[in-house]
């Protein structure tokens, strides 16, 4: 219903509400649509988990929907106070969701780290918001660089670029114990929703309040993008946990998104970022859907335990392979065209170093994705672990919701790349 309401509002005149605290326009609405899309695809992933636990479904869905509302408010925030309150609404629900399994030690440890780092980043962001409200002539202040760094730290916690990424691998892995009924779908939800909301917020903060200091924040974001692309993809090579690998991969992916933020309205930077975000949602959630299915049927998420999966479940193995190939950016999948459009816009804007690093790190990512795919398809008998040897497909009706989400995401990760013009046209129609 919410998605339908947003579609009916498309192309209408911008509107400001809540005493000027919230703004509705095409740019905000496209990000709100992406957040609703994330929630719509993530909720079916959670059904099987909720059925396997004794926890209340009402509370679980309430936290997800409240986090969704917080993310949507952040996309439309029109003043600094709302920019602080909206992500706190999202963050509080995220903490509760990540610690939903109270009896799991690793989950509790990851949640505590997530909470402490989130509180620290929120404090830093609030301090700079208060400083900005008090010093109305902030653009004349010599401390503008310090303010930019602090605000970037606050927003960076949600985006999780390097070096603000420390919580990401721990939270991803802390929710990975299938045998203890940990809420793995929560990780899928956080991996996409937080990045969409934070990207929308970053574009508004850097492009409007700090328009007068574009050189400073461009340099700062360029450093973050380079660190994210290099560290995220290089460290991902060494991981043995599927979800920890995805955590570092997501850090590298956000480095590509930052290129679009730097380019901005000129040269279709925002349009390329929105297009890639749409593809990233389908690629990432499709991969997580495959991991959830495999985990429910085997009780593990270690990469080596995927050896020979194709012999037991060709459909799941092919779906996972397509999503990973799309994440790596191989043609003719959607991820390739999304990266091509993003890098082309960056090249047109003169970000030659960022684009070259993005291309090189994309090759690195293809390497570790192909390693997993090779394991899926060509695992020899001696390499097949007991988890896959004893693999049994669940009855069709028991995993309907998860498989439906997986199929939708796999299709969205492959077909749209071939016919991108309508998607690009919609994304280009989202200027401020």
From TrEMBL:
Biological processes per GO annotation: ATP synthesis coupled electron transport
Transmembrane regions: 30-50, 57-74, 143-160, 217-238, 245-264, 270-294, 315-337, 349-370, 402-427
Keywords linked to the UniProt accession: Chloroplast, Membrane, NAD, NADP, Plastid, Plastoquinone, Quinone, Thylakoid, Translocase, Transmembrane, Transmembrane helix, Transport
Source superkingdom: Eukaryota
Database matches in PANTHER family: NADH DEHYDROGENASE
One family name in Pfam for this protein: Ndh2_N
Species: Helianthus annuus (Common sunflower)
GO cellular component: chloroplast thylakoid membrane
Thylakoid keyword on record: yes
Residues annotated as domain NADH:quinone oxidoreductase/Mrp antiporter transmembrane: 77-364
Annotated localization: Membrane; Plastid, Chloroplast thylakoid membrane
Catalytic activity from the UniProt record: a plastoquinone + NADH + (n+1) H(+)(in) = a plastoquinol + NAD(+) + n H(+)(out); a plastoquinone + NADPH + (n+1) H(+)(in) = a plastoquinol + NADP(+) + n H(+)(out)
Record lineage: Eukaryota, Viridiplantae, Streptophyta, Embryophyta, Tracheophyta
GO-annotated molecular function: NADH dehydrogenase (ubiquinone) activity; quinone binding
Xref: InterPro entries: NADH-Q_OxRdtase_suN/2, ND/Mrp_TM, Ndh2_N
Membrane disposition: Multi-pass membrane protein
Domain named NAD(P)H-quinone oxidoreductase subunit 2 N-terminal: residues: 1-48
Protein name, as recorded: Putative NAD(P)H-quinone oxidoreductase, subunit N/subunit 2
């Amino acid at each position: 219903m919410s998605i339908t309401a947003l579609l009916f509002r498309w192309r209408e005149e911008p509107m400001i509400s809540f005493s000027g605290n919230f703004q509705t326009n095409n740019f905000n609405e496209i990000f709100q649509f992406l957040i609703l899309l994330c929630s719509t695809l993530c909720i079916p992933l959670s059904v099987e988990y909720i059925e396997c636990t004794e926890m209340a479904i009402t509370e679980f869905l309430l936290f997800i929907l409240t986090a969704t509302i917080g993310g949507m408010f952040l996309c439309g925030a029109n003043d600094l106070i709302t920019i602080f309150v909206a992500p706190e609404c999202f963050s509080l629900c995220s903490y509760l969701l990540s610690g939903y399994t109270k009896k799991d030690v690793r989950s509790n440890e990851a949640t505590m780290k997530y909470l402490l780092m989130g509180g620290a980043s929120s404090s830093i962001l609030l301090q700079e918001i208060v400083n900005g409200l008090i010093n109305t002539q902030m653009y004349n202040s010599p401390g503008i660089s310090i303010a930019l760094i602090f605000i970037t730290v606050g927003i960076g916690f949600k985006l999780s670029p390097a070096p603000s990424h420390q919580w990401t691998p721990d939270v991803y892995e802390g929710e990975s114990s299938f045998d203890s009924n940990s809420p793995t779908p929560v990780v899928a939800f956080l991996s996409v929703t937080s990045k969409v909301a934070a990207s929308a917020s970053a574009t508004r903060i850097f492009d409007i309040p700090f328009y007068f200091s574009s050189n400073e924040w461009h340099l700062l974001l360029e450093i973050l993008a380079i660190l994210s692309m290099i560290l995220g993809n290089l460290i991902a090579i060494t991981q043995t946990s599927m979800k920890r690998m995805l955590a570092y991969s997501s850090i590298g992916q956000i480095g590509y998104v930052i290129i679009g933020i730097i380019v901005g309205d000129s040269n279709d930077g925002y349009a390329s970022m929105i297009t890639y975000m749409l593809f990233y949602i389908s690629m990432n959630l499709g991969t997580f859907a495959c991991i959830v299915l495999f985990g429910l049927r085997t009780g593990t998420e270690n990469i080596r335990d995927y050896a020979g999966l194709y012999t037991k479940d060709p459909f799941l193995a092919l779906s996972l392979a397509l999503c990973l190939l799309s994440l790596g950016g191989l043609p003719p999948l959607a991820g390739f065209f999304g990266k091509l459009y993003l890098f082309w816009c960056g090249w047109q804007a003169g970000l030659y170093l960022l684009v070259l690093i993005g291309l090189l790190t994309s090759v690195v990512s293809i390497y570790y994705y192909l390693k997993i795919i090779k394991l899926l398809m060509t695992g020899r008998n001696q390499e097949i672990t007991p988890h896959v040897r004893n693999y049994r497909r669940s009855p069709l009706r028991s995993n309907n919701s998860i498989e439906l989400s997986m199929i939708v995401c796999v299709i969205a990760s492959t077909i749209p790349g071939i016919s991108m013009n309508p998607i690009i046209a919609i994304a280009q129609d989202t200027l401020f």
